């Protein structure tokens, strides 16, 4: 009987890797967020048109919270929302590769 004894190789997972090795992996998985440059572009374009976040949200049929999330950098860039913002603000907005 070897139940309950830890072997040097550790417990293997279904992927074949030792559980210890999986725990030691350092990959950081996270969603891309709105870049600093894009945040500034949105704020500048909105203020140039003298719009509040609520007014801009209404113009693109989104909640004001969406505009706030984009301007604070918390939003995950959505091409459809960026397209609507570009159209209403009259500027070209693209999600940047910055994370």
Architecture overview:
The chain is 46% helix and 0% strand. With 99 residues, the protein is an all-alpha fold. α3 (53-59) crosses α4.
What's the topology here?
Blueprint (H helix, E strand, L loop, with lengths): L18 H6 L11 H13 L4 H7 L4 H9 L6 H11 L10
Helix pairs in contact: 3-4
Instruction: Count the E strands.
Output: 0
Give the rounded overall mean pLDDT: 82
* Order of helical and strand elements: HHHHH
Helix content: 40-55%
β-strand percent reads under 5%
Kindly report how far apart the N and C termini lie: 51 Å
Shape category: elongated
Q: Ranges with pLDDT <50 over ≥5 residues?
A: none
The main pleated sheet reads as: none
Q: Total helix count?
A: 5
Main traits of this protein?
single chain, 99 residues, mainly alpha, 46% helix
Short précis:
The chain has 99 residues and is mainly alpha-helical.
């Amino acid at each position: 009987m070897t139940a309950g004894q830890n072997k040097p190789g550790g417990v293997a997972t279904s992927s074949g890797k030792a559980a210890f090795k999986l725990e030691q992996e350092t990959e950081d998985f996270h969603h891309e967020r709105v870049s600093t440059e894009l945040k500034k572009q949105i704020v500048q374009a909105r203020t140039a048109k003298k719009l509040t976040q609520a007014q801009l949200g209404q113009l693109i049929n989104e909640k004001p919270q969406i505009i706030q999330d984009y301007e604070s950098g918390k939003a995950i860039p959505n091409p459809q929302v960026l397209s609507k913002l570009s159209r209403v603000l009259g500027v070209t907005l693209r999600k940047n590769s910055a994370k």
